[in-house]
């Protein structure tokens, strides 16, 4: 039964109270900083619903009998809203000055835990305003990859999410919970440990900073590849509210509302609600239902206490609930492996009495016989305290977050009853505490110092994998001898495993970085970090079902498919890393910098099932995965050649020792894959991004990233799908091997060329009685082809693709309406390809969205 989360939200949208006050006249004129009038600006008396619009010359007259002093709120499209305090009534008109919205070269970021102008920070950063992201249709992090070329995000569902920057950060493919992400994900200073956080809808986002490169001396958690630093809009004392409704094809419906205001002196509150629904885009012919839809509901509440100019306290709580029609993979092809003809996919399905599956992925149809489900709930509570001490701010961020994951997958991707069920049910709790001080020590010296502690408890709860009546033929290697017994009726029917596992981890760190202008315009920025990590694992897997028998031969055949496995392990590690940056800023138009840094990603553990040794026991030699050690070099220059134009260039080289990667094992019991280390990896690249802003009329942006990622040395890589069954002559004997030397091969998930660009043109105009601007905008992106397999494969490669999005509409200070379309050309493309478990030759794909279109209406009170 489909949950309808939006009906009550829509009722909320138009239930904002209105209050009327008495009136007396006040006159004035609204001007820009250069003295020119601002026509049609809105002037409102704060705390009331009394407002007027200025005329063509910026002149206004408003009536009030408010007790002095009171505030006039002035706003206009393209300018920063501003409050002006009126202390006394006067005969001469008031002259009120509005400042234009931050030009591109005035964007403020907090990536170094203090407010700074973006172009002054010697770090490669891309900033996207929350409203701009939503206008472009990026209502979660997944869609930001079309706006920021260096970001790669691939997901077959919320859990199996790979979030990388410059091709590094997380293992590509099926997620193993025992490895830490290398890209930090922060919302209002709180670290989110689970990659599923990227699937939740944006709610009241102020801006998103995408920080590229290691940043371990600034952020709480290790960030070997970069970080997302997301800030939300804080509550206001002034009563405000906004509503948004969006409609589109596939029955898309999105509703958002946010209400903010003062509860008492110095105490403000805000409540935000978001709901998104959309029909699926993939049709299951067997179940006669749609999949790959959306059904999301999100809440966020905040209390903001500001008793003085020195103290700010923000208490936040949020929860997101997602009950989508699951995200199935579609059959993308069948490869010929190096196994015998008897073990090729076509022969197997023919022997089972099925027809070869139809390979037509972009018909967007499947016929799987197990329902797909990807339900999750994610949320938490945080307390952030900022206290100004001297020339800096002491900050404490305390947080608890949770994640519940309830999936069902049909892992044979077909109508066969082979690997019929895969359920990785999980429960995650995290507790974090960060305390840091950031500010100016002297006129020439500033910095940040802090401590960070993160505790996690990740449980696998009765995680289930189950096979059906057809699985015997996939595991049978011949129809003679003991292998012939695999056809024994009912032998593997309903045979499976239930796994309960626990990872308890602790990460603690001390970090510091300073910025010292030791010569005029020349800055040196050293940073240091000490990290300690500990992980304890308890793994217990038990078999169930199948034919109940005491026959030793049959039991041996069952054990070759699934077997009990238990192990415990504990590991810890510590690391000292750091960086040093030189930055030269001869003028306000140039910032050139060079950085050398070392970074570290913690020791990993395997909880996806381990390969077995010759005696059938878990191979504990691969239970623990060595940490990654990173050496990173970067050169960059940020420039402002002419007014309104920014051009930034960055070149980098990253070397990783003991790169943590995901290995797909041919053993069915570890079909989720296990973790391993590639001896050495190198990623190098060049990024160029530019933007141009012509006052309020035209905004242009473009970016290109060249990335080259290779295994320098990976001697024990898994075989690609098409080489499964490969044999080599070893000591004069033809021997089947399971691994190969992939040294020199390309890393998965990395497109060599990534390009994006966009433009927005606007002009003044009126819509009915509303004064504002008409606009037309578009953005395009291109990614060249990339490998979709841990080991380079001739088969599992995603072809390059381009996407085009556009929108057109009208926006005023309080009202906007626009039509939009994403993937206008209806491009068919894959986001990911992966082999079916057992490596019989079948592989499936994650499809990108087809063309979508709709309209959005926003209104502020």
Automatic annotation (TrEMBL):
> Which residue windows are coiled coil?
none
Q: Name one GO cellular component term.
A: cell outer membrane
The record's SUPFAM superfamilies line, in alphabetical order, gives:
Carboxypeptidase regulatory domain-like (SSF49464), Porins (SSF56935)
Q: Which BP terms in the Gene Ontology apply to this protein?
A: iron ion transport
Keyword match Ion transport: yes
- Read off the InterPro entries from this record: Beta-barrel_TonB, Beta-barrel_TonB_sf, CarboxyPept-like_regulatory, Plug_dom, TonB-dep_rcpt-like, TonB_rcpt_CS
Give the bilayer topology: Multi-pass membrane protein
Q: Name one Pfam family in it.
A: CarbopepD_reg_2
Q: Check the UniProt entry and state the signal peptide residues, or none.
A: none
> CDD domains in the record, alphabetically?
ligand_gated_channel
Residues annotated as domain TonB-dependent receptor plug: 118-227
> Mainly resides where?
membrane
* Homology family: Belongs to the TonB-dependent receptor family.
- According to UniProt, the name of this protein is TonB-dependent receptor
Its lineage opens with: Bacteria, Pseudomonadati, Bacteroidota, Sphingobacteriia, Sphingobacteriales
